[in-house]
Design brief:
The chain has 553 residues and is α/β, with parallel strands linked by helices. It has helices at 3-16, 20-34, 47-61, 80-92, 100-125, 128-140, 142-148, 154-174, 183-198, 201-217, 228-250, 253-268, 280-288, 296-305, 310-328, 341-353, 362-387, 395-416, 423-443, 450-464, 478-483, 493-499, 514-523; strands spanning 68-69, 72-73, 469-473, 489-491, 508-513, 529-538, 543-552. The protein has 23 helices and seven strands. Helix 5 packs parallel to helix 8 (154-174) and helix 9 (183-198) crosses helix 10.
Length: 553
Amino acid sequence: MTWRDRTELALAGLAADRPARPMIFVALFALLMFLPGFFSLPPIDRDETRFAQASRQMAQSGDYIDIRLGEGTRYKKPVGIYWLQSAAVKLVGESHATEIWVYRLPSLAMAVAACLLTYLIALSLVGAQAALLAALLMAVCFVLGGEARLAKTDATLLATVLAAQLVLARLHMRGAEAVRGGWPWLFWGAMGASMLIKGPIGPMVVGLTVLALIVLRRGVRWLAPLRWGRGLLLFVAIVLPWYVAITVKSGDAFWAEALGRDLIGKIGEGQESHGAPPGAYALAVWLTFWPASILLPFGLWYGWSARREPAVLFCLAWILPSWLVFEITATKLIHYVMPTYPALAVLAAAGWLARPDGPLSRPYRLFLAAMLALALLLGAAPLIFSLQYGTGPSVLWALGIALSLAGIWSVWTAMRARARLRVVLGMGLLSLGLSVSLFGHLARFGHIWPSNALAGLYVQAAGMCEDPAYLSVGYGEPSLMLLSRKLPHFVGPEEAAGAVPDAGAGCALVFVEDRRRADFDIAVSRQGEVIGRVEGFGLGGADALGITAYLFR
């Protein structure tokens, strides 16, 4: 017996074991996929750093109602993610409050939880082997791996949606007996938590699934075990206190920002250059779900051929209504459809295991070759980017490419041998290779992280004079706030000039971006000492930057 056969048998035995062992394996596998770059990747502008800095200020102020960012407010999303990130700061310690990995901990934990919940949902729907395979497909999924490394809402949102969908799947497949005890409270608690994380998005996905199933099952009586009366009371008890408190504190400012400009605004027009026509997600899924998308054709085939089976009906009710809503929404970001990806993983896993006997078709072999070649294209992208700025390949990049090559060979041979479960280990190598070459390589490329160098200049200035005023003209990325012990003030040239003290009357550090330097030179009354200059590429604005640091004393 070859090692390949032994690997296949070991995975089959693991899948057949009691759920605890497969879940431990899924959790460890997911951590292996998500950890490369987690600690080393600098804060990424702009959304991640906005969430993290607002959470830092919440933890420092002790005000867990209002959401502040710098000297203003941050009302685009509800408070749930800020509570989780503030709790992470308290748990790890205030001395780490400027380190971005602290704020990423909730996303990492919830991404692992999403893989585990995918396993439990699939276990209710399609059996043990498909459940293990579906959970591992989620762990290798590119977009979930990205969200696991970002201090944002989306991995946590996914976990809350999956917790509710788990209860719904059990009820749909096995009836009232499967949701006795605390299961209804999990459903409503997850919906309440989801509402505090990202407003109505999570309840929308679950609610559309319920509505689709009502149509397919031609009735609502099967939903009675969810205890709607007491359940809704629990939902309101979770959600209402903070929403009332923030309304009292902010008046209509929260609702105008979160509901008016953020949610409704994204429906009507593509915000922040993120517009795309309907159908964009159907095209993008082959990349965003990669390398799990290698099995997606089998999922599409299975979804059609077994469309009358209860498990497939549940997945289709989960995917299709929400996907349609996301497609017609004007603003499109690659993670918006992620709450439907676990259902895609379930269909892909079940379809792969139920595939017809015989060799792979020629069209699929061509598709497979293209998807495997994508591993090398994606791995080459960070090197091409860094070469533009005079940086060569790193050891981590070479390691990532080596892992990708091993993954290509592993997936191809497993497919040719029609291995049932071993193929996902090859996908793990592909995912790991991309993570190492992309996140690991770019983390060491200082040119695209100007805030790191600027925060270092503040430390230098603080050693040259006591507690300098801290100003930035033309560069206002929130990563600078997060990385600095003192909060910088983002101001215009005239305001900065007015804050510069007279000689001998104190000191000030002023960062001036090149495009505002002429205005600043006109406005300021005396020349400052140049203590450093930073040139780089701002990810937040996607443009080249040149920033000069002036010390006035």
